[in-house]
Amino acid sequence: MEAPAAPHNPAETESSVPSVEITVTSAEQMRDLGRRLAKLLRAGDLVMLNGELGAGKTTLTRGLGEGLGVRGAVTSPTFVIARVHPSLGDGPPLVHVDAYRLAGGLDEMEDLDLDVSLSDSVIVVEWGEGKVEELTEDRLNVVIHRAVGDTTDEVRQVTVAGLGERWTAVDLTVLSA
Question: How far apart are CA 100 and CA 118, in angstroms?
Fold first, then answer.
């Protein structure tokens, strides 16, 4: 099965959209980025992760889980579609969804009840573009670009863009630290 290309929507990267670009050179740096991103997240946030197979979407989500302080090892939910990681403290649970195998849009994802979980959870959807945007106008788009082909290059270019009122006042440049 060939992986769908990571779509790029120029309208979502206009200057009016708060965004930041970060270069990541290792899996540990990707996890660290996830830990930093977790500090910006709260219940009700939707994070859409897009990028080629092997780009680091699940590695970033592991860092998010660590930063949010959730229970359970964060692993790819490709075959189970979604995993819920309850908080070990008073923070929100992490709902980790892999929409790669889901061909339909939100209709096919309704069985996951993401709209019910959204208000009290942080929802991270890998391969979510074109499938979950209808859940909320406020979301964080994370696109991970990596060299494709026969390469061992671990360099990734990560673009984080906030969409909607929720993200207008959030300083995403703190992710570059």
Answer: 20
* Global pTM value: 0.80
Instruction: Tell me if residue 160 falls in helix, strand or coil.
Output: strand
Q: How far apart are CA 157 and CA 163, in angstroms?
A: 19
Using CB atoms within 10 Å of the CB of residue 28, give its burial: 0 to 12 exposed, 13 to 18 middle, 19+ buried: exposed
Q: What is the pLDDT of residues 5-32, one digit of tens each?
A: 444 444 444 446 789 999 999 999 999 9
CA separation for the pair 76, 57 (Å, rounded): 9
Give the list of residues 6+ apart from residue 91 with CB closer than 8 angstroms, or none.
68, 69, 70
**Model confidence at 170, in pLDDT bands (50, 70, 90)?**
very high
Instruction: Indicate the residue type of 161.
Output: A
